[in-house]
Write the structure tokens for this entry.
Amino acid sequence: MSRAGSAAVLAGGLVLGVASVASYLVKRAYAPVSRSIAFQAFPGKRYRPAAAAVGAPSGHLEVLPSQYPRVRRDDTEETLHGVIIQDPYRWLEDADSPDVAEFVEEQNVLTQSVLDQCTTRPAFSKLLEKLMDYEKFGTPFKKGQRYYYTHNTGLQAQSVVYSQSSLDGEPVVLIDPNTLSADGTVALSSWAFSEDGSTLAYALSSGGSDWQTVHVLGVDPGMGATTQHPDTLRHVKFSCLAWTHDGRGFFYNRFPPPPGGGGEAGTETARADNQELAYHVLGDDQAWDVTILALPEHPDWMIGCEVSDDGGRAILSISSGCEPVNRVWILDLNAVGRRADGALDFSPFAHGAAGSRELPLNKLVDEFKASYEYVGSRGSEWTFLTNAGAPRYRVVRTDISAPAPAWTNVVPQHEADLLQWVRLLGGGKLVCSYLRNVQAHVETRDFETGRWLADVQLPGIGSVTGFSGDHKATEFFLSFASFTEPGATFRGDVAASDSDITLHRRIATASFSPDDFQTRQIFGTSKDGTRVPMFVVSRKGLTLDGTAPTLLYGYGGFNISLTPSFSASRLAWMLAYGGVTVVANLRGGGEFGTGWRDAGSLSHKQNVFDDFVACAEELVAQRYCSPASLVIQGGSNGGLLVAACAEQRPDLFAAVLGQVGVMDLLRFHKFTIGHAWITDYGNPDVAEDFNWLLPLSPLHNVARPKDDGQYPAFLLTTGDHDDRVVPLRTLKLVATLQHTLAGDLNPSQRNPLLTRVEVRAGHGAGKPTAKVIAEVSDMLAFAAGVVGAPWVHGSA
């Protein structure tokens, strides 16, 4: 799994800015200078958050204090590191409680009453539906004798997987998730073919939950007909699917069955500990699957697995949290015996069994100091992509048969660009994808020497959104998109050319003209002097008079890069309201390497909020908008971002759209996979970390501004089946906002403080198209209502 993928498990022409982003940042080295946090623990004292000096502008929607539901508060509190922390809504953590269900119902009723006042919502929904109603194609790939790709006719709840005998052959349905549920909430979450392409293991999730059920299909190589196997694997989450080359079985990850046999509804909140690596033999009942590796002494460690190019070894990637570091353990499959039916026999190595033997492991890297991703191998010479001694990554090689690894450079770290990923193709060619000023740059190199061969001729400025190709073939496919282009897929063949690619399929929509829009890259200057890039997308000829409804999006965490990508919702905002959309590249993300990530993590997390505020201030200074027309949006870690920024600088924003946010930084690690985020946020159980987390935590820092002003309008969204960022965090924050800001007899708060809780929805992955349209329409029509944006696209 890629760096971005593993972190996520746990977000017209371009007019460049004056300076080169990368060269400036490399010269500066973006040292992680963080704000001096004004918090000192006084044992036995209750925590009192600091109040912002000035409140938010008044919006065009309002909720009177008397309209908010009366929510029970109790006297729950606890002492953490000598500080008394009040938690009067702890009871909202019980997701299955009737009281919580009543709270959700009352909040949804209130929110709906406000949304009903957003007069442009029906028209916006129709526009968004029209913009999303275009054919979508995934990047094709070849396995065995057939090509595969995903396709959505436009508004299907889930994309369908097709196969073809050739690129112009008749498509045959492989899997259609739309047939698996009446409401479209069963999604295909992952899949993997056996080496010869004759068998497929695929995982399904339901209602947006991270829990998966794995099934197996047989595939006829000639006609593409499928045969369903009886194999069904449960208790699967955050799983690899890695076939051994004999096609008789595959590795996958599971968790111990929960007590009582339940616990996979997607609404549970228990910590996800003690992941296991198991091996399933095709045709066996899951009860016979052998757990080959478990790490009970490290319950929060995760185990990834892939099989080497020659099939002789399995590469186990051991991680702890979301920091871009891992261990690499190599399992010698040739040292594993065979059963009578020819399948690998791991039973002598079964974890926890009496008399079990030790796995034949070579712990090539056995410390958490850098990340290593397998690229390819020739005999005992193995090649990896790593950030060891290279925050912008390099490609290295070592002899795994040596007593200790001796790493040699194949592709050195670039002086400015970030090496995002590397793929080995047939003919000994490497495809290397870089980020250059947060834009894609792809080149080919020689696998043996690392020598540069050619730049791949991309169609413009944007992002590589998909790639397929492997070491057995010279053919590859590459998908490309930008902020205003849905994208296209190109085919290349390094046997014919190291640089040329030809158009395979263009994704087109007739609902708008990309030529009507422009993209600029500008910079804000953060509190410590760091220049922070952002992409600004708007209609051409926009008048900069400070009135444009502006949507500023950010994430800033977990080494995730926000690169140019197509979004129908952003386009709908610009078309419907003449708006501006902005994507900020904040510290904490991966846009410029691990140094950029580190400068926004742990004790430096405040830098991320300062960066976002700096971007907002720059937008105001350049007269794109004013605080009264500025809306901020973020999801997950980005939900934390926008909530914290609104608390620290309420005067700067009109509305806050926080989706599935991490709103409680003192208890995030106690639920589901939250413990994996300690590497980005810190550990609240450690006093030093607690001291920087407490003044940043949105739940604990709601305070009426000193001028007796108000907060911006809030719409916090979540899903009742979100078992990654559990909904209790959002519920507790909205209850706190309503009580603190609108609970007195004569409060000044009139800007709405709302939540929207979706039924049978999770963290976002696999959400049906209709639910996406409904949620986005509610959020952006609400934001438009708050800023008083008139409808400018046709007639409402």
User: Anything to note?
Assistant: The mean pLDDT is 91. The chain has three domains: 135-263+272-369, 372-508, 511-787. The two ends are 45 Å apart (CA to CA). The CA atoms of residues 538 and 580 lie 5 Å apart.
